[in-house]
């Protein structure tokens, strides 16, 4: 495909996307297919030579679309919202064309600086303290991650690293693996499954704290669990506070939990993946009381803010 054909096909794709979204309510939301339905319709072996675009694109409607769950349909009520918008689609097109990696400032200066500015915008929009923003008076800042699950893992690994270093300095004769084996992380019994996965990857014990009648984890219950584990010779080190749980959108007691974390020297992470967008509205920020005492927080603009998945904003 050369430049001229790309111009033509690009316009055709825009027309197809517009038609798809304009008529999406007429499509069956969940496909009536069985596992393995694509097999037999697509060759087992890759083509030796390229094929005409028309032949390839014909497979989209004939093979792919019959097996798509249409998340953008107004009749789609499963999972969480995964919204999109035409400006976001255009931005995706441009970023894919530029196709740079922003792992350092030098690898793409505009990429790094724009990320800093946009995460500052988002942080201000939801009312984060100045310590979480990129500025000369702060050691904190935001980054764009792929998912809240990834952010939870990064937070846990960060808390683990800080704790291992602290205990290693206090007990230089104790092997690092022995300290590691005693680490305990905490979350509500309503927390997302990604917390358990993060603990498995981080090779630490995860303890679920029983939620109350409002399906919320309290600071007092957390403190009880921490004290019990310390008496057993274990090392509490990290807590995941959920603001907007997956099952029922309940909110943990952030203020009480943050106080316990400060008192016990625990890393306090806030998973606001779903509900974080709502903090743009000042009337919902009562759930954020105590945010000035936490270590990290993440939420997903890709849920309510009309940008594509995957997009998670994380600050620490």
UniProtKB/TrEMBL annotation:
Enzyme class: lyase
Family: Belongs to the group II decarboxylase family.
Domain of life of the native organism: Eukaryota
GO MF, any single term: pyridoxal phosphate binding
Modified positions (N6-(pyridoxal phosphate)lysine) in chain numbering: 303
InterPro entries linked to this entry: Aromatic_deC, PyrdxlP-dep_de-COase, PyrdxlP-dep_Trfase, PyrdxlP-dep_Trfase_major
GO biological process: catecholamine biosynthetic process; histamine biosynthetic process; L-histidine catabolic process
A single Gene Ontology CC term: cytoplasm
Listed cofactors: pyridoxal 5'-phosphate
Record bears the keyword rRNA processing: no
Enzyme nomenclature, EC number: 4.1.1.22
Alphabetical keyword list: Catecholamine biosynthesis, Decarboxylase, Lyase, Pyridoxal phosphate
Identification of the protein by name: Histidine decarboxylase
Quaternary structure note: Homodimer.
